[in-house]
Amino acid sequence: MEEQLRVGLIGAGPWASTVHAPGLADHPGTRLTTVWARRRDAAAELAGRYGAEVADDVDTLIDEVDVVAVAVPPAVQADLALRAARAGKHLLLEKPLAETVEDARRIVDTIADNNLASMVMLTLRFSPEVVDWLAELDKLGGWAGGSAQWLSGALLGGAYSGSQWRHDDGALADVGPHAFDLLDAALGPITEVLAAHHADNDLWHLILGHENGVTSTVTLSMRLATRPTVVDVAVYGAHGYRALGGRQTSAQQAYALMLNDFVAMAHSDVRTHACDARRGLHLQLILDQVRRKLA
Questions:
Q1: Does one domain contain both 203 and 258?
Q2: In terms of Cα–Cα distance, which of 260, 253, 275 is closest to 29?
Q3: In a domain, 282, yes or no
Q4: Which of 71, 160, 211, 267 gets the most CB atoms within 10 Å of its CB?
Q5: Is-contact 255 23, C-beta < 8 A?
Q6: pTM of model > 0.90
Q7: What pLDDT does residue 138 have?
Q8: Mean of the per-residue pLDDT values of the chain
Q9: Is 238 helix (H, G, I), strand (E, B) or coil?
Q10: pLDDT tens digits, residue range 62-92?
Q11: Domain ranges, residue 133
């Protein structure tokens, strides 16, 4: 293994604590060296678990590392990602990239201008069962449509129920990018939001148009009393109905697989990946179309 990448983690919330930090500390290609969070006590507690330092401010963290991993709300991430990219740091980014398409595009352009590696936390895409499912769909072809349902009670209680941005933006911004990404990868690029409806209980119903004339439907909510969470993704067409089976790979395992690709990118001249920042921009454009449709 080549020299470990020094990684600074911005954020100390549930996802940073349970996925980012242990994943970065355990992977042979990365070393979690620095943590910064709005609450210094939370940053210190997380950093202490892995022998990392606590940065006094964001700019200090950026100066001391090779990679910046961001685990904060999208409105906050945009500015931090731009500062890190302008300083020439590779980036591990959350979805959505930002609150607006304009900010997401600025992030992508700055990453490209500085020849940086980037990855968006579309961790499902790295699960072997998802990789195999998508490979089979691509081999067979002939798909006429698809659907995705993601229904949970995550905002009713649990680790993420105190997340204000999730309450404000709902399932569309949090789990929507995962659903869009999977349908897009399975059926071809999503080019149009044909219909959108949003109910008061965070229930979203969407109809999406894909580049090749295929359509798909999406149902999302994080405010339904469903236990366990329902995640159903399927396509149908000339070869029947092919559903993605239940999740077999944990978020932590998928994150480790994602880091394999990211570390390889950072140590090479390769700067493109199916889940890089440009993918984040594509998903941001879909989110924007949904909101415009509702407006």
A1: no
A2: 260
A3: no
A4: 71
A5: yes
A6: yes
A7: 97
A8: 96
A9: coil
A10: 999 999 999 999 999 999 999 999 999 999 9
A11: 128-248
Bridge partner residues of 148 (DSSP):
218, 233
3-state secondary structure of 30: strand
CATH number at residue 55: 3.40.50.720
Q: What is the tally of structural domains in the chain?
A: 2
**1 closest CA partner among 267, 278, 284, 192:** 267
Tokens 């910064």 locate to 36
What angle in degrees, to the nearest 10, is found between the helix axes of 164-174 and 277-294? Answer: 100
Q: Is 191 exposed, middle or buried (0-12, 13-18, 19+ CB in 10 A)?
A: middle
pLDDT in tens, 106-127: 999 999 999 999 999 999 999 9
pLDDT tier, 246 (very low <50, low <70, confident <90, very high otherwise): confident
CB atoms within 10 A of CB 154: 22
Q: What is the DSSP string of 126-188?
A: GSHHHHHHHHHHHHH--EEEEEEEEE--TTTSSTTTT-HHHHHHHHHHHTHHHHHHHHHHHH-
Is the CB of residue 232 less than 8 Å from the CB of residue 149? yes
In angstroms, the CA 96 to CA 83 distance is: 17
Q: Is the pLDDT of residue 191 over 50?
A: yes
Half-sphere exposure of residue 137: CA atoms within 13 angstroms, side-chain side: 26
Is position 9 within any domain?
yes
CB 220 within 8 A of CB 171: yes
Helices (H), strands (E): how many in the chain?
11, 12
Q: Are the CB atoms for 147 and 233 separated by under 8 Å?
A: yes
Q: Are residues 12 and 78 in the same domain?
A: yes
User: Could you tell me if residue 294 is inside a domain?
Assistant: no
Task: Give the orientation angle of helix 176-187 with respect to helix 128-140, to 10 degrees.
Answer: 30
